[in-house]
Recover the amino acids of this structure.
């Protein structure tokens, strides 16, 4: 089954990379492709600006990343914020541990304490043992979930965090074109196929705000497109 990008309707299909384990060579190549794609998408700069819009009174000390992958994107983000953010306790949540020792050491060099949680995100967020976090980050992660799953995931994030910043594919013509052009970045077949699916499952308008509206508490939300290919959403518990 294939999806076409529609401004009216999301189309959520399984992405091949999600089913490949850490030792799969095509999966390893695709994860390297994603690093180049993040550079092309200006992901770190967009994430920095999105976090700035939350207007933290003081830098977050406890951070959670959902769908963290190999942890390198948030490492670049952490380096960009040095030395303003230090002594951070970082939890990287994903189904499998992809964090290399080199990346772990790089976090330690920044003064960040990092640990990896291997679990299904929605289930883990709803467990009573889940700690409290100042900030939850999701980058190219929320689009993997259909409306029902997304509502459950966001409710779990709201119960565990005081702020959420999400950067997702913008579902539109420009991003659809970009998803077809990843071949020119040297992307393999897994990445090329998943890129098209990601945009078809992405967000536009105020779809994430509408999904967030049912969570408990009073929140300040912001949702906007960030050129060239990204859709951003932030939510901060009122009074933070």
């Amino acid at each position: 089954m294939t999806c076409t990008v529609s401004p009216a309707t999301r189309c959520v299909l399984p992405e091949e990379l999600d089913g490949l384990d850490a030792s799969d060579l095509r999966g390893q190549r695709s994860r390297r492709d994603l690093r180049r794609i993040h550079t092309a998408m200006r992901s770190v700069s967009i994430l920095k600006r999105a976090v700035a819009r939350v207007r933290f009174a003081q830098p977050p000390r406890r951070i959670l990343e959902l769908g963290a992958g190999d942890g390198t994107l948030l490492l670049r983000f952490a380096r960009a914020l040095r030395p303003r953010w230090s002594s951070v306790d970082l939890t990287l949540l994903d189904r499998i541990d992809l964090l290399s020792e080199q990346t772990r050491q790089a976090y330690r060099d920044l003064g960040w304490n990092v640990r990896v949680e291997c679990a299904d995100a929605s289930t883990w967020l709803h467990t009573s043992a889940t700690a409290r976090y100042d900030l939850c980050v999701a980058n190219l992660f929320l689009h993997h979930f259909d409306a029902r799953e997304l509502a459950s995931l966001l409710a779990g994030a709201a119960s565990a965090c005081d702020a959420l910043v999400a950067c997702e594919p913008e579902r539109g013509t420009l991003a659809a074109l970009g998803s077809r052009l990843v071949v020119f970045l040297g992307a393999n077949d897994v990445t090329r196929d998943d890129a098209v699916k990601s945009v078809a499952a992405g967000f536009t308008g105020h779809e994430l705000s509408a999904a967030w509206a049912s969570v408990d508490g009073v929140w300040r939300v912001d949702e906007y497109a960030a050129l060239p290919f990204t859709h951003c959403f932030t939510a901060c518990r009122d009074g933070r």
